[in-house]
Amino acid sequence: MKAIMIHPNLRTPLIVGSVLLLGAVGAWGQDGLDREIAFEMRDKPWSGEKGSVLEWLSEQTGLPVSLSRAKPAGTLTFINPRQGGAPRHYRLGEVIDILNDELFKQKLILIRRAKTFTIEPFDEKIDPAALPRVLPGELDRYGNTELVSVVFSLPELVAEDFAKEIKGMLGPLGTVAPLAQANKVIVQDTVANLKRIRDLVKETGQRTQKTPSGCFSHPCLYVPARHAARVLQELLGDPKELLQVFQAQLSVREAFAGQFGTFADVPKMRLHHISVDERSNTVLVTGSADKIAQAEAILKTIDVPQEKDQQPIRRGPAVLKSYPVPDGNAGVLAKSLQEIYKDVPEIRIGAVTNHSIMVWAGPREQVEILGHIRASKAPESTVEVIPLHSLSAGDTVDTLKGMLGSDAKPGATFLQADTKRNAIVAKGTRQQIGDVKFMLKALGEENAPPPSGTLVLTIEQGSTATQSVAEALERVLPQLLQNPVQIQTFGGHEAKGERSKPESLPR
Predict the structure, then answer these.
(1) What torsion do the CA atoms of 192, 197, 198, 202 make, to the nearest 10 degrees?
(2) Has this prediction a pTM greater than 0.90?
(3) How confident is the model over 28-45, as pLDDT tens digits?
(4) How confident is the model over 271-324, as pLDDT tens digits?
(5) Any idea which architecture 125-207 has in CATH?
(6) Per CATH, is 382-447 categorized as 1.20.1740.10?
(7) Among 318, 353, 358, which Cα is nearest to 338's?
(8) What are the C-alpha distances in Å from 1 to residues 4, 97, 101, 507?
(9) Is 195 left (phi over 0), alpha (psi -120 to 50) or beta?
């Protein structure tokens, strides 16, 4: 047996060279994921021979290959296309994708662990602890077919709900586990599926990342913000009612836990809140990403012009204005307006006198309130003389005033007795005068005796002036008397000298 002696002067360079060689070989396995190599195989066995596929992989990456559970059979042929006469180069992730495309045909998968490569059966459960744990941002450095594990943080989502939603996106080797306290999910799957989930989380975060707290604000242009908030409240649900239902479910679950079997898990929920900034006519919504997305879609639908050429709503600070109320019912009108705006604490309305009200509100609300005041203007009044036949005008007016109340009240019916004509002079709206006529009928006026017969006037026929007087009486008397009037003349063809005696005028 011969010993090989190394000269002391050559020992140090040899050791350094060996270390550098080992470092170069193992560089790809540590952080050389972006390094590219030319890859080509021509009828190479997978393992067991010099120059096999897996042996080549171990030499290139510096990582050993473990074949404890499954071994690929047959050979691999991969002809590398030429680019400008030189073979194409691939990153490690792309090489693994090429190998896995062939291994999938044998229901196998190549897995890159922290310190080794291994081949596992595709249709058997794989230990999650054996997979590499990578960050979402590192997925682009791995092959799409590689099996890894990623933890996704969900600042705007509920982990349990998100885990249920993405189950349908996972492949046959994919699993998902929510971390409720940390509001995160651990997802195991191929890199291709994990990239899609990463994009979904990113898209959701961008949609709700108006502010770090998950708050969405929408300045309303064509509808009042309080109206938009009321619509959101109806469509998204009242957070207080949702909280009561959630607490009731927890109480039932705690009360009967273990007595009637297991209960389904009560879903986790993040309450949403809706508020209004009257000054800027803005709706504010805070909550989970899905609620904010729904609110954004609803507001875009309802905040549109309702009429052609409709101008945006005026916005600005509140001001104090006074408005006249000509009808003298400022107190009643102020109470009605207070009821309309009772849910808007920023608006203040009060009656200063019987003929004016004071309003503290923004420009948009001032326009609204002025419209209410104009719309509340009392209907026009009219004057009518109501003749009486069976009742006395003076006593009847006193009776009606007692029934209707004092005529000094603003908007009340005015009544005056006309004793000469035994009639009532009434002033008010058509509805009020109709009420007076209805009361007169109730007092017995509708039972007045009808006019007593026809009034006949006989005039001697003579000159043209006499004939004109007869025609004038025939026109005027029917307007003054209730009786029918007939004019007769004698001395002509009608009477032949016979004079009719006129009937007496009725009282």
Answers:
(1) 140
(2) no
(3) 544 455 678 888 899 999
(4) 788 888 877 889 998 877 778 888 999 999 999 988 888 888 877 778 899 998
(5) 2-Layer Sandwich (3.30)
(6) no
(7) 358
(8) 10, 49, 50, 166
(9) alpha
